[in-house]
Write a structure and sequence with these properties.
Largest sheet: 5 strands, mixed
Order of helices and strands: HHHHHHHHHEHEEHEE
Number of strands: 5
Radius of gyration: 43 Å
Strand order of the largest sheet: 1-2-3-5-4
């Protein structure tokens, strides 16, 4: 059977009409069989109930108990077993195992006892109707009398086991589908958290740099601009105070957006590269800082992620220098190696008052380096000041 017909068959068996159609068809076959081979009222009633009850086997699985019981009663009332009764009995036991109406062991034990009761009824009928001698229990030939019960027990064992196996397979399939759905949900959540981390990093690298320049320029204007009135000086101080308050608020926002486990991914929009370092240092000098750029090694084009990570690390290091060592001389060294890019940003300010290791700035720099498989260290320099060193391999 090809995959398409098999799929169509499974779809049809899953429809609500399937048990009604099959149960009705089996009942019609039972009527035809009874007309061809009539039996007593008990037999006819049992055969018809056993077949007709299967129409409710999906909406009410326990009805299969009636299917099995009436089938055994009809068989016990006569000496022959109708084909429709065989089919309805197998389907009934399958339904009981498929829907776990009771534990399979209970179903098999109950079916075996019912088969034994039918077998005993037939033995009594043989002795009464045919006058055949019945061997004593345990005597020669006595076990052969119970072959009927043995065969029925084996058949019902197979039907119950098959139903239970199908149920277990469907449960496994449902659990696998649920696990797959949960995995997709987790992946989406992780992607959202990664995007949140990327937004947090970009906010800090871009906005913090600009706001810190506003604060430094406003504060330095009160000393570098002679002839300012008291109102003008107060205005510049208010600008600086507002800028620093904005920085504090920005840090609180970053605490909400950033997740410690996520390193995130760079944004796909055009981003600055190492070619923009000269402009970055000019901005740093414009607010009173002193900076020098040293580039060594053979400059080679790097992937966008490496260019952006290196630029952001330098940008954040200069921002920290302006905040914690205003007026200090900062040296930015870029070394193009054969398989890695080395960064070294050091200043001659008071290294002991440099930022700690838990701020968003240092965290963002480490994340930038880890994003491309590199490393970064930050701390007091060997000759004083504060030193940031990183390696970005490719």
């Amino acid at each position: 059977m090809s995959s398409s017909p098999r799929r169509r068959f499974r779809t049809w068996t899953a429809t609500p009409a399937y048990p009604w159609i099959t149960g009705g068809a089996l009942t019609a076959c039972a009527v035809a069989e009874l007309l061809a081979y009539p039996g007593s009222v008990t037999i006819a009633t049992g055969v018809l109930l056993s077949a007709a009850s299967l129409m409710w086997r999906r909406s009410c699985p326990p009805v299969a108990v009636l299917t099995v019981a009436t089938g055994l009663v009809s068989f016990a009332a006569g000496s022959s077993l109708y084909i429709c009764t065989i089919v309805s009995g197998l389907v009934g036991f399958y339904t009981l195992g498929r829907h776990r109406v009771h534990h399979p062991a209970i179903l098999i034990a109950g079916g075996t006892l019912g088969s034994l009761a039918v077998n005993l009824a037939h033995i009594a009928d043989w002795s009464r109707r045919d006058g055949l001698p019945v061997p004593a229990l345990g005597g020669p030939g006595s076990l052969g009398l119970f072959a009927e019960a043995f065969v029925l027990s084996v058949v019902l064992l197979g039907a119950v086991s098959m139903g239970d196996a199908v149920r277990a397979r469907e449960e496994t399939r449902n659990e696998r589908a649920l696990a797959h759905a949960q995995l997709i949900t987790m992946e989406r959540q992780q992607a959202a958290e990664a995007e949140r981390a990327a937004i947090a990093r970009e906010l800090h690298d871009i906005v913090a740099h600009s706001v810190s320049m506003i604060a430094v320029q406003a504060e330095s204007a009160t000393y570098t601009s002679p002839g300012l009135t008291a109102e003008a000086r107060d205005g510049f101080q208010q600008i600086a105070s507002t800028a620093r308050s904005s920085m504090a608020e920005l840090r609180r926002l970053l605490g909400v957006l950033r997740t410690p486990q996520q390193t995130g991914t760079p944004l796909t929009a055009p981003q600055p590269t190492l070619g923009h370092l000269a402009e970055l240092l000019d901005q740093h000098r414009a607010v009173g800082g002193e900076a020098e750029l040293k580039v060594t090694g053979k400059q080679v084009p790097l992937p966008a992620a490496w260019e952006l990570s290196a630029y952001r690390i330098v940008q954040e290091a200069l921002t920290n220098a302006r905040k914690h060592a205003p007026g200090a001389r900062t040296v930015v060294e870029i070394d193009y190696g054969s398989d890695r890019l080395a960064l070294r940003i050091g200043d001659d300010g008071p290294g002991l008052t440099a930022p700690g290791t838990t701020g968003h700035g240092l965290t963002g720099m480490r994340e930038r380096a880890a994003l491309v498989g590199g490393r970064l260290s930050a701390g007091p320099g060997p000759d004083g000041g504060f030193l940031v060193e990183g390696e970005l391999p490719w």
